[in-house]
């Protein structure tokens, strides 16, 4: 697979989001997930994405076990800041003491002596970003972290952070049906030479065309419980967009998911579609080789107009954490 740069960090042109291997999208399957990670490495999909809050903690442990003996093949990205304590509401911490504490814990769970890309998962409004990035810069100097990143940060915060220490990547949701990044965040990243990592580039799997009803999701799946785009009324409207995308995909002889991923690739981002199944990993990886003309890109975007998507990507409380 081709390589791309996130700031000074070289990664595979497509990564693998590992969150769903442990939580949020139905029951996990460690054996199947491990096989998927191994197949990803064989295909050159070597940029793996996790976070301490996935599980919580168990996703990092799973990845640590899966890459044991192959660590030198992997560009490993994880995140801190979302605090999940048993029996308590989720919180945010970006204070320097917590940054260092979280990094040490992630290193231990991952079974490694360094994290290639360490993101602040969400911006803590109670801690100046300069303080958080200052602590991350110390971890870089100590060799425990290679490069730093932000997730779902706003343009002003990105600029302030980058002034303290180079930010390699900003991770944000970006797909044909989540395009708010295009107004300010993507242009800011391009100006500063910061890479963009696109999570949920398949619209939480919806753009693959595999889902037609909320009943297709397992009990407890966050798409049923926390994401308005998947409520009955919005789902019906959004299905029409997927059918339009399917028509375009058929013209190219590929799947709707592959054409959706190809569109993200052509925006200059590094998509990290998640899956715990080898067959879907292989389908996704093949999308990195699809080349599209400007006319074809416009046709794809017209099939799924940004203003036609029904529902916000998160519920109201979670949306408040984005773009700070």
TrEMBL record:
Domain NADP-dependent oxidoreductase, first and last residues per copy: 15-303
Keyword Transcription: no
Enzyme class, first EC level, given as a word: oxidoreductase
InterPro entries in UniProt: AKR, Aldo-Keto_reductase, NAD(P)_OxRdtase_dom_sf, NADP_OxRdtase_dom
Annotated EC: 1.1.1.-
SUPFAM superfamilies cross-referenced by the UniProt entry: NAD(P)-linked oxidoreductase
Entry keyword annotation includes RNA-binding: no
Keywords, comma-separated and alphabetical: Oxidoreductase
CDD domains, per the entry: AKR_AKR13A_13D
MF annotations from Gene Ontology: oxidoreductase activity
Protein name, UniProt field: Aldo/keto reductase
Protein species of origin: Saccharothrix xinjiangensis
């Amino acid at each position: 697979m081709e390589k791309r740069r996130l700031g000074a960090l070289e990664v595979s042109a497509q990564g693998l989001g590992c969150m769903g291997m442990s939580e949020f999208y139905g029951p996990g399957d460690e054996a199947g997930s491990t096989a998927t990670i191994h197949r990803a490495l064989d295909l050159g999909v070597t940029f793996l994405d996790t976070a301490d809050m996935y599980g919580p903690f168990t996703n990092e442990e799973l990845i640590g076990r899966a890459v044991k003996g192959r660590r030198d093949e992997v560009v490993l990205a994880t995140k801190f800041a979302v605090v999940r304590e048993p029996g308590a509401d989720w919180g945010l911490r970006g204070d320097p003491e917590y940054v260092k504490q979280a990094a040490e814990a992630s290193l231990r769970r991952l079974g490694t002596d360094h994290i290639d890309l360490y993101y602040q998962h969400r911006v803590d409004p109670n801690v100046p970003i300069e303080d958080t990035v200052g602590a991350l810069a110390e971890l870089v100097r100590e060799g425990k972290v290679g490069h730093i990143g932000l997730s779902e940060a706003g343009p002003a915060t990105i600029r302030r952070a980058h002034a303290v220490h180079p930010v390699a990547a900003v991770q944000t949701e970006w797909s044909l049906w989540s395009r708010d990044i295009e107004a300010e965040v993507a242009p800011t990243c391009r100006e500063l030479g910061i890479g963009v990592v696109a999570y949920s580039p398949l619209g939480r799997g919806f753009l693959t065309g595999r889902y037609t009803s909320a009943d297709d999701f397992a009990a407890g799946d966050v798409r049923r419980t926390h994401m308005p785009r998947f409520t009955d009324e919005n789902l019906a409207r959004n299905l029409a967009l997927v059918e339009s995308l399917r028509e375009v995909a058929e013209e190219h002889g590929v799947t709707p998911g592959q054409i959706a991923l190809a569109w993200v690739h052509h925006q200059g981002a590094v998509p990290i579609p998640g899956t715990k199944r080898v067959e879907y990993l292989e389908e996704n990886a093949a999308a990195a080789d699809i080349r599209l003309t400007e006319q074809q890109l416009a046709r794809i975007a017209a099939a799924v107009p940004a203003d036609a998507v029904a529902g916000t990507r998160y519920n109201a409380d979670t949306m408040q954490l984005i773009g700070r």
